[in-house]
Write a structure and sequence with these properties.
It is built from 10 helices and no strands. The protein has 213 residues and is mainly α. The protein has a domain of 146 residues: Tetracycline Repressor, domain 2 (Orthogonal Bundle). The protein is elongated and about 65 Å long.
Length: 213
Amino acid sequence: MTKLGAKREIKQERAAKTRVDILQASIELFARRGILATTMNELAKAIKMTPGALYWHFPTKEDLLLAAMEELHQRFIGEFTEVLTEGRAWSAKRQLMAFLQRTRSFLRYQPQNGIFFAMLAAEAPNNNERIAGPLRDMLGLYIQVLAGICRYGQKKGEFRADFKPDAFAHALLSGHMGIIVHQQLAKDVVTYDGMCDALEVPLLAGLEARPAA
């Protein structure tokens, strides 16, 4: 590799790292202060950058939000490689438990990830369709996976037939988004895992197909 090529690669690596650092800091600040209340100037100050440097990476706040969404989306999808590959041979209950366990793992030590999505879900639909549309698409993918697991369980006779998989998947996903927000308020009296158990243990038991009378 030529010296010029090496320098270009180093610059590209630094730019990529700077971009990731900006996105992580932005996710944390948006989760603390809210999407609408946080300005680009405040973000620049928090990241210790000039506003001009921040705008060079992300020309608008919407561009920054979309990039942050995609960054978290790729991280989240990475948690499910096993479930989406060899996990297809598992029972429906095992697939669903694996999905829930990986969701917990993703949010337990980085609650700002879930809070960021929850903030977007609360604020974007009535304020910014450019953000709301991609957010629906991303969350829709998770809904599709959950609903698919449920339909598979119904087809195999593992899960009861008297519930709608799509509605269930929406309810389950929104329940987890609500948990991660509420637990920040009630962290002195309840743990994140405790709240997840309270939701998931009776839920999984209630899904199981009832034996014929």
